Amino acid sequence: MPPASPHNAAHRDRRPLASPEELSEYLGVPDNTLYQWRHRGIGPKALKVGRHLRYRWADVEEWLDAQTVDLAA
10 Å Cβ neighbour count for 53? Predict the structure, then answer.
């Protein structure tokens, strides 16, 4: 067994990657919106797995946190 390291610890908590369909349902936006965001460079980070787009949930959460708007301002 490899020695424990912070890098290995991060891999133990991995969740399955999200498909565009799963992410669009989660965010409540059409699939095409995700593809447009990716093309324009404004959406969550996407990965190419073969010919397929996939999203890491941690990247999605980070992107969502960056979208927070203070409505009181």
Answer: 16
Q: Taking residues 4-33, report their average pLDDT.
A: 81
Half-sphere exposure at residue 51, Cβ-oriented, CA atoms within 13 angstroms: 0
Residues 6+ apart with CB under 8 A from 40: none
- Sign of the Cα torsion 57, 22, 55, 30 reads negative
Q: What is the mean pLDDT of residues 15-24?
A: 95
CATH architecture of 15-66: Alpha-Beta Complex (3.90)
Q: Is the dihedral of CA 60, 56, 4, 6 positive or negative?
A: negative
Q: What percent of the chain stands above pLDDT 70? A: 81
Neighbour-count burial of 42, counting CB atoms closer than 10 A to its CB (0-12 exposed, 13-18 middle, 19+ buried): exposed
